[in-house]
């Protein structure tokens, strides 16, 4: 198992919480969110094998507590930039699952109107500023969003989510330097699931304690058990407050485990069966359900009801995606430029291509 | 009208746009305290302060991406890349991100960002500091690429670029900064629309097509040709993406002979695209093959004699023109 995971589990065992002081409905809602992400991703994998979804497709299975913990600590004014393994984040941000599934299906009703697909989910209304599929590409952009918040003296912070292996790319180091120089309200949220594709953290990063990688820039870093929803939420809240009030950027490393391969089609032969069995055994959903059960906030009957409800929600999302229209051929060129100008190449060719394709169809 | 340099035209425009819109800010290496490697931003830090004129560390990918991200939230960054050679360090943010964001996310976010950067050789800066990469960016859907040749155009086009909601690559040229030209005195708020070429000199015998510094060369040659009784038309492309095919084709249909002069490398260059366009859409109007005058395809050498030999020159252009006019009846 990932060394970081062992360390962080040792820390989390004495983590004390007084759940009695928390709002019971909110605590129950978190479980609903966890399960929604889980089912959404399971059914997404299924839809991929049925060829309803094309391209690359990366699932968040196993990372649900990391995602819901993070997103539950955010405010509506915050902005979120993520990598390409982002379905769960936009689900947890509260965007309708049907619109997300429709994007995976390449439909006009999708969150990116069918132009982006699995790796490029975007919803401006909820400040979900995109999944980005070039590793590290979102980091300078997110840093720029934090720059804009400060420039315009607006409240809120930026969350820049990324994977463990992204901490090895130049854009991350350049951005950390800039974020600290300019004192920007941003949290770099590193999901350490132990692997960048098939390369372990230790094989990719000379400093495997990823939260320490901001030290050259005097950026504060912390590591949290990513399978513990409340731990992720609480540390995010604290760092968020600090980023917003003091304009102090931070790194938060959440240690989690990827239940499946890098993408839907990866059989993950680089991991031992034993490791995968152990990794899956510590299921973040079971972990959180136990917390709620132990505190008598829920019972088995409640869990069953939620499961039925979520199953239906995801089925509705699939139905919505299925029933949605494809983008229109005549819109091939639409959205190409925000400001139309004379002589733009491609517009007339796109119309001709659409007519030809329509004629054949 | 008053006569100012290309550098002054840029400097004045930046100042005016900073005054006009609080969301406009400048960003780049050495643009503030140092006042710009080529002094285009001189005096602007003093007037607008460090919030609006932002010195960056040497981190092109970082600050170009930062500008694009800030633009997504409504700011209007004008980024200076010290020379176009360094833009390669930021090309992922320009090509994979800034150029894609509006389309790929279904029109939900805009990237109103300008990247100003000078290209060009001839200063003995050798292979890594003398290049012309405009073709790389003109190739990419989602970008707009401008290359003005005169102070008047620089002003009107930079205004348009800053007010445009798409990412714009604004190409300058090291050898143009000190060139002079007329601009209106009243600092009138004229703009030059993106996507339009300009016939800088009318003529009948052949068309010289150029952009950026080569437009200046082409105009100089066209004037010299008048002594020989040759009346050349000069089309300044000035917008590389979009390319104003109509103006180019209209000129070709009038003169029937074309020489394209460009400072970049010949193969796969801007001239190749223009030549292809002409043969596709005005083949029957051509009385001679289209000729290209371009840079010799080597990494630009340091030694003055070699550098001069590698860059397109007045003599190269004259030779190409005379060859193209062989058998033609000139001075109609």
Structural overview:
The complex is a heterodimer of chains A (361) and B (332). In chain A, 46% of the residues lie in helices and 10% in strands. Chain A is of the alpha/beta class and 361 residues long. Chain A has two domains: 3-327, 3-Layer(aba) Sandwich (Rossmann fold); 330-361, no CATH class. In chain A, the strands form two sheets. Chain A has a six-stranded parallel β-sheet, sandwiched between helices. In chain A, strands 5-6 form a two-stranded antiparallel ribbon. In chain A, a hairpin with a 2-residue loop joins β5 and β6. With 332 residues, chain B is α/β, with parallel strands linked by helices. Chain B has two domains: 2-183, Thiamin diphosphate (ThDP)-binding fold, Pyr/PP domains (Rossmann fold, 3-Layer(aba) Sandwich), CATH 3.40.50; 198-324, Rossmann fold (3-Layer(aba) Sandwich). Chain B is built from twelve helices and 14 strands. Chain B has helices at 6-20, 44-48, 60-72, 91-98, 101-104, 134-138, 151-163, 213-227, 245-255, 270-282, 304-310, 314-324, and strands at 2-5, 24-28, 53-55, 76-80, 114-119, 144-146, 168-173, 180-183, 198-201, 206-210, 232-236, 239-241, 258-265, 291-295. In chain B, the strands form three sheets. A seven-stranded mixed β-sheet of chain B has the order 3-2-4-5-7-6-12, sandwiched between helices. In chain B, α1 packs parallel to α7 and α9 (245-255) packs across α10.
């Amino acid at each position: 198992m990932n060394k970081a995971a062992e360390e962080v589990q040792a820390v989390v065992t004495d983590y004390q919480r007084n759940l009695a002081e928390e709002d019971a409905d909110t605590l129950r809602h978190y479980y609903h969110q966890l399960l929604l992400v889980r089912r959404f991703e399971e059914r997404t994998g299924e839809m991929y094998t049925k060829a309803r979804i094309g391209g690359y497709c990366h699932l968040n299975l196993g990372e649900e507590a990391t995602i819901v913990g993070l997103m539950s600590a955010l405010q509506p004014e915050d902005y979120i930039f993520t990598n390409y393994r982002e379905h769960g984040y936009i689900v947890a941000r509260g965007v309708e699952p049907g619109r997300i599934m429709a994007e995976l299906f390449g439909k006009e009703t999708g969150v990116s109107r069918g132009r982006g697909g699995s790796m490029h989910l975007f919803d401006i209304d909820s400040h979900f500023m995109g999944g980005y599929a070039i590793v590290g590409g979102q980091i300078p952009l997110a840093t720029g969003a934090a720059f804009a918040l400060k420039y315009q003296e607006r409240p809120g912070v930026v969350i820049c989510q990324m994977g463990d292996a992204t901490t090895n790319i130049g854009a991350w180091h350049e951005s950390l330097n800039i974020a600290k120089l300019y004192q920007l309200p941003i949290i770099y949220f590193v999901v350490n699931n132990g692997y960048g594709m098939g390369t372990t953290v230790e094989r990719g990063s000379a400093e495997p304690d990823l939260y320490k990688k901001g030290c050259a820039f005097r950026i504060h870093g912390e590591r949290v058990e990513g399978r513990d929803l409340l731990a992720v939420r609480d540390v995010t809240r604290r760092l968020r407050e600090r980023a917003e009030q003091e304009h102090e950027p931070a790194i938060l490393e959440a240690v989690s485990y990827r239940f499946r391969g890098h993408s839907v089609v990866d059989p993950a032969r680089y991991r031992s069966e034993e490791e995968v069995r152990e990794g899956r055994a510590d299921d973040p959903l079971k972990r959180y359900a136990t917390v709620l059960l132990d505190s008598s906030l829920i019972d088995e009957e409640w869990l069953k009801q939620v499961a039925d409800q979520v199953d239906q929600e995801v089925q509705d999302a699939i139905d919505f995606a299925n029933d949605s229209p494809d983008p229109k051929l005549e819109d091939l060129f639409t959205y190409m430029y925000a400001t139309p100008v004379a002589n733009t190449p491609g517009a007339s060719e796109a119309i001709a291509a659409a007519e030809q394709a329509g004629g054949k169809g | 009208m008053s006569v100012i340099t290309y550098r002054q035209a840029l400097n004045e425009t930046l100042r005016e746009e900073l005054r006009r819109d609080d969301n406009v800010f400048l960003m780049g290496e050495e643009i503030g305290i140092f006042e710009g490697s080529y002094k285009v931003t001189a005096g602007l830090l003093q007037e607008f302060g460090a919030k609006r004129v932002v010195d960056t560390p040497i981190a092109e990918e970082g600050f170009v991406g930062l500008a694009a991200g800030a633009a997504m939230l409504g700011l209007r960054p004008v980024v200076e890349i010290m020379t176009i050679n360094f833009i390669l360090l930021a090309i992922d943010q320009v090509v994979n991100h800034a150029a894609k964001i509006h389309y790929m996310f279904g029109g939900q976010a805009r990237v109103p960002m300008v990247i100003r950067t000078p290209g060009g050789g001839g200063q003995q800066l050798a292979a890594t500091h003398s290049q012309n990469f405009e073709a790389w960016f003109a190739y990419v859907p989602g970008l707009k690429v401008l290359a003005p040749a005169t102070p008047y155009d620089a002003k009107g086009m930079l205004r348009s670029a800053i007010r445009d909601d798409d990412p714009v690559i604004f190409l300058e040229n090291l050898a143009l900064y000190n060139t002079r030209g007329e601009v209106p005195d009243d600092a009138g708020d004229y703009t030059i629309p993106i996507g339009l070429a300009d016939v800088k000199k009318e003529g009948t015998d052949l068309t010289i097509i150029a952009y950026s510094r080569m437009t200046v060369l082409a105009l100089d040659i066209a004037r010299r040709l008048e002594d020989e009784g040759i009346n050349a038309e000069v089309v300044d492309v000035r917008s590389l993406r979009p390319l104003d095919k109509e103006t180019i084709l209209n000129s070709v249909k009038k003169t029937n002979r074309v020489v394209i002069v460009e400072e970049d490398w010949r193969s796969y260059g801007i001239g190749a695209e223009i030549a292809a366009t002409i043969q596709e859409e005005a083949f029957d109007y051509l009385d001679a093959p289209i000729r290209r005058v371009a840079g010799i395809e080597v990494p630009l050498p340091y030694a003055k004699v070699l550098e001069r030999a590698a860059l397109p020159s007045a003599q190269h252009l004259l030779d190409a023109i005379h060859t193209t006019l062989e058998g033609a009846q000139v001075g109609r």
